[in-house]
Amino acid sequence: MTHQMRLFASASLLAVAALGATPAFAADIATDAGSTISNQASVAYSVAGVSQTGVNSNTSTFTVDRKINLLVAASDAVTTTVAPGQTGAVTTFTVHNLSNQTLDFALVASQPTGGSAPNGGTDNFDVTSGSVTVYADTNTNGQYDSGTDQQITYLDEVAEDASRTVFVVASVPAAQVTGDIAVMYLKATAREGGGASSQGAAITETSGANTSGVDTVFADTTAGPADSTRQGDHSAADDYTVAAAALTVTKSNTIISDPINNTTNPKMIPGAVPLFSGWTSSRKCFGSD
Q: pTM, whole model, 2 decimals?
């Protein structure tokens, strides 16, 4: 091998060793869908210990695809205690947008038939048909305020990594007894965002190979009680537990006189005068959480 050939081989080896590029990542939830990521490779090399002018590659770009993910959760692990015939019984949920884009979320409250309750026990009744409504926490205080919180069928324009509080409000049949349990599901389904005050269109996952545009991937890999994985939706469960009043009633009477003995050891004969002590009761009341 000539000196020139050895020198060329050495320079080539150094050039390959110095070839590099700064990696470009799009995995962070804060990297918006549709963002353009650019990357460029650079080569720095030397010949016989002398640095040479580096060489840059062309700029490679790609578009960040859309990751659809969400989480619905009950606000706590405590049942909502209710009374027979109660109206305005509330369960509270949060809906968290884990996607890398602002989205709308369609909301559906439903009830199972039987099965285990999330806070213990077994579902054995449904709240009153037609009474189930969903409300947004309009004033963001974390508590349901009748007349203030707005009834909704979807959450509008939920920013990426943001969450909203939602209330499911229902009425309890008057015939229920202490210990009865009704399970309530809330399911949220991702919808297109981009427009205030109107629910966005349904979202479809992109099929086939990666395209040059913005592809959509359903990333909801953990199912709730009323949904399936990788469908762009999620659900959670809460429950109502009935606690009726425990009431005992006692009535007593005393004879104070009769027409024969007057007030001395009176007997219960016709014409006797009784004294009724009235109604007495022992009542145990229950509130709601």
A: 0.75
